[in-house]
Design goal:
alpha+beta
Amino acid sequence: MTTTRRFTADDMLKFNNVNLDYYTETYNIPFYFEYLATWPEYFYTVETPHDGTVMGYVMGKVEGDKPRKKWHGHVTALTVAPEFRRLGLARKMMDLLEEITEKIHKAYFVDLFVRVSNKIAVGMYEKLGYTTYRRVLQYYSGKHAEDGFDMRKSTALDPEKKAMIPLGRDIHPEELDATL
């Protein structure tokens, strides 16, 4: 049994076991605080019931342009500690984020970025109904620079799944806003 609850500032002192993973993007503390303050409804953690060990977390936001059906939920981070993977925790947190996107924010789709090399995550997102909308060249910078996939899943507000139709070309990071 696990406990899913809203992320709190104290959790930032307890999530090293989750963040010390190659595929997990780790941000600075002000970044986490900004998300916690601005989009608290999108920031959840899953913990063990016996000692409160953080097993994983999801953080996201809502963004875009409402009138043009670009209003969407965005998964900024979804991660599960290696020892707690393959238990369905990522699916549980994604289901929660998708529900918040559709029912609270009335948004048309959910998007996320994932490293092209992270085949396990890409496969998981595909099983959850996400498709690759576009490839973003050199989306991930730094020591382990590589391309990222922008993956999307429509909500019930986009019954024709127009938001999921692939762009049909690769883009550069500076083009992201223009090709939303």
